[in-house]
Design goal:
This protein is mainly beta and 116 residues long. The protein is built from no helices and 11 strands. It is globular.
């Protein structure tokens, strides 16, 4: 039974920062890619940032230059440092991990609200 536990969401003023954390536990064999996605009401779930098992990173859209994804393989954790937050960043943020067999697991989502 795989479980992803997210934390760090909340409400901040524009220009503020948040750090999201996601801890993976359970019978996950050889975690490969880990990433963060976000979904605003009525919108699609979009990739924000991705980090590979080798540490390579990909940032999408407005996350570039403001967000930093990192991982701690010893702890099976992935983080998203979000700086200079904007109201457009308001969404539910989801953690996603893939195991060595290509199966994807999702966290429950954590709300991030940025007010102007």
């Amino acid at each position: 039974q795989v479980q992803l536990v997210e934390s760090g969401g909340g409400s901040v003023q524009a220009g503020g920062s948040l750090r999201l954390s996601c801890a993976a536990s359970g019978s996950i064999f050889s975690i490969d890619d880990m990433g963060w996605y976000r979904q605003a009401p009525g919108q699609q779930r979009d990739l924000v940032a991705l980090i590979t098992s080798g540490g390579g990173t990909v940032y999408k859209g407005s996350a570039k230059g403001r967000f930093t994804i990192s991982r701690d393989n010893a702890k099976n954790m992935v983080y998203l440092q979000m700086n200079t937050l904007k109201p457009e960043d308001t969404a539910v943020y989801y953690c996603k991990v893939e195991n060595g067999f290509g199966r994807a697991y999702w966290g429950q989502g954590t709300q991030v609200t940025v007010s102007s």
